[in-house]
Every structure is written in C-alpha cells, then in structure tokens.
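Researcher: Structure prediction, please.
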Amino acid sequence: MTEPSAFTADPSIRRLEHTLADGRALIYFDDADTTLSPERAPDLRELDPRPATATMRQDALTGEWISIAAARQNRVFLPPADLDPLAPQKPGNPSEIPSTYDVAVFENKSPSFGPELAAVTDAGPEALAELSAVGIGRTRTSIGRCEVVCFSPEHAGSFGTQSVSRARTVIEAWADRTAALSALPGIEQVFPFENRGEAIGVTLQHPHGQIYSYPYVTPRTTRLLESIERYGPGLFADLLASEQSGERMLLQGEHWTAFVPFAARWPIEVHLLPHRHVPDFAATTLEERDELSRLYLRLLRGIDALYETPTPYIAAWHQAPVNVGRDDIRLMLQVTSPRRAADKLKFLAGSEAAMGAWIGDVTPEQQALSIREAIARADAATPIEPHTEENR
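Model: Predicted structure follows.
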C-alpha cells in the first residue's frame, strides 16, 4: 500500500504558527507576493473553555456513524460585516484572528469532530475494523479535528473571487494541513471543502472553507472502495481517459482535467482529476498546485457566469483515506450545485432523499456545453494569464 504522502512545501509561501487564547492552533499562510510583515499580534481575548468533544452514534441499519455535536447550535449566523468572526480583530469585533492576514487556518471553536484525539495505542487498522462492526446502541467519542480556512480578510467573496496568488496560497494550505492532519492519531480521512451561498446553508458570508478530519472512512468513500473492488484498480485512470475523449470535457491542462460526469446527479456537477495517480493534496507537486490555482479559478468563475448572480455550490475535495485505498483512490474535486435555472433550485424529494435514487433534470452533455460557454465568457471578462516560471 502507498505510504502517507511526503509533502513538499512551497518555500515562497510563508507559514507562521500561533495559538489562540483558548489553546486552539492558528496558522497564517502568507502569499508569495505578500506585503505583510511576519509579525502578528497575540490573541488577548478571555474565552470560555472549549466545548466537550461530541459523541458519535451508529445507525445499525446502515453501519454509518452520526456525530451529535449539539454545541454547533450556538454558532454565529450571517453576522454584519462589523461583527465578522473571520475578519481580523479590531475594536468592537473580537474575532477569531488577531492580525490581518492573507490566508489563515484555525481550529473550529465548535467542531463536529474533536478536539479530543485518539490515544496512539487506539489508532490504526484494528481501531478502523472495530468501527466497521455493526450493533445496536453503539456509541464512540467523535475524535478528530475540524479547521476553518479563511481565503481572505475581506468580508465577502469565495474561492473564485481570489487572485491567482491567493488561490495558490489556499491550495498550499490544503496540502500542508492534509499532511499534518493525516499524521494525527485516530484520523482516517481528511476532507477540504467550501460551501458557498445561503442556498447551501452557509452561515458566514466571509470567503472561507473548512477541513474535516474524520475518525472513520466516510460512507461515500466506502462505496467508492466497493466499486473499485468490483471494477478493478484502474478505475480512475480509465474514467479519466474516457472523459478526456468525450463531449463533456470542460478544461484540460498539463496536470488536471475538468469535466461534467457521465452520470451527473445535480443540475450543475463538475469533476476534476489529476492526470497522474495522486491520493491527496499532500502528494501533489509544486507544478501541479501552480496549474491548479489557475484552472480552478477559471472553472469556478465559469460556473458563476452561467447566470447573472453567483451560483451556490459545494466544492468537495475527495481524498484517499489515511490507511486504506491509497493505491486506488485518486484525489478528486466534485463541485455540485442545486441550481437548475436562474431562479430555481433542485430540492431533494422522496426518491433522492429517502431512497438515494436520483433523477437528473438536464442531460450532462447539455450542461457541459452551457458550462464551456460560461467559462469562455468568464475568461473574456477576467483573463487569467497562463502559468510560466516567470509569473509563478
């Protein structure tokens, strides 16, 4: 089996470790072309103790684990700009980040998993196998780590509104944190993602994403492992080759390809794959991250150009688990949106929500054509210069 990824950091992106007043980790990632000083203010707030780690309960009908994180009920909901908890601290706004920043990553105050971690002796394949057993009334501690990734100090925006340099810094943070979180005891899978738009359930308008570190292999990845077992180890390579020669192609670079999948579930659904086998962000090269910073911006800006207003979406970076499937599961982005028209959303009704049996609203081929045209409009409106060594 492939060993955990050996992460190669970009030396042009500065990394600064700090600690918040209640002991949570805070890491600043400074753009390669940053204008910021490396000096950062300490967090001088008086904070309540962190909530206790949540508890997981197993659904005996599916074997899946559900974390009951009641402390999350009290999280901030759509605050005004002057009370933005992800903006740099200033008088009247005792936010989570003491200093101005380019990109900042910190432990979530109200996490779904953690802050407690497994004891080193309780981690590893034996613990994972024990979690896979099924029984009635089974509970476990929701060990793990949840982090917030702030893309910008600005109050509003998303990944797609950032500069190429800033996008590259965020991608570096994803790779850095994937490597670090994968090394923690009891962590089985690391999941970077961005929720964008109130229609998705976003509670903060600040441009940000999150990273969840789970104490188990997630249900979606478990099903993927089952598909690979039935198909064979070349599933991702064959899938990529098929899409690259088809009519659902959207963008292709030297290292990455984006396409609308053959069996898209959502009205807007785009997948992106690296051309070589890469289990997670930590295994990517500097050149792969450089190209991704441009291609991913073009993709998201194209999705926004479909309509006159920004498109709500979930951008989910599926990574191989820490201890299983690393030779077979390839890093993959899946962007999904319920937007089926300018003023219409797809709601999951009986068949999808209750039975998991999906019905598509538009053919993937037609949606690919619409997205290609939108990407062309976005490229014309806001050109992104191609990558060269001079503008890296």
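Model: DSSP finds seven helices and 16 strands in the chain.
Researcher: Thanks, that helps.
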